[in-house]
Design goal:
The protein is an all-alpha fold. The chain contains three helices and no strands.
């Protein structure tokens, strides 16, 4: 869906809700939505904003429920990852001793330094 199509659908939804919930005529509802789209103030601007907030709240309600349902799972996963990190740090091999036969930048797999 293109942004223009999404904007048109949103306008239709808002017009319908303004007519059903606030008793506006079709012309008043269309004018109010168009004015808000043009960033103009009108007599019904506050109703359009209220309906837009209501639509978003209704649309986000299932997502909020899903987030709340997954929260215990995410907390358990975070605790398991922290425990795994602690276990890996405890079982990590001790740091190797500093080698003095080559500089720090030299690869341990490269040729040994020449002796003079």
């Amino acid at each position: 869906m293109t942004p223009e199509q999404a904007s048109a659908r949103a306008a239709i939804i808002l017009v319908r809700r303004l007519i059903m919930n606030h008793g506006l005529t079709v012309e008043e509802a269309v004018t109010a939505v168009a004015q808000l789209h043009r960033r103009e103030d009108g007599p019904h601007t506050h109703l359009v904003v209220a309906e837009a907030h209501a639509v978003m709240t209704e649309a986000l309600a299932p997502i909020r429920k899903m987030i709340e349902a997954f929260q215990p799972i995410a907390q358990a996963a975070a605790a398991a990852m922290a425990e795994l990190g602690r276990a890996l740090r405890q079982n990590a091999p001790a740091a190797t001793a500093v080698r003095r036969d080559r500089p720090a930048w030299a690869s341990p797999y490269g040729p040994p330094p020449r002796r003079r």
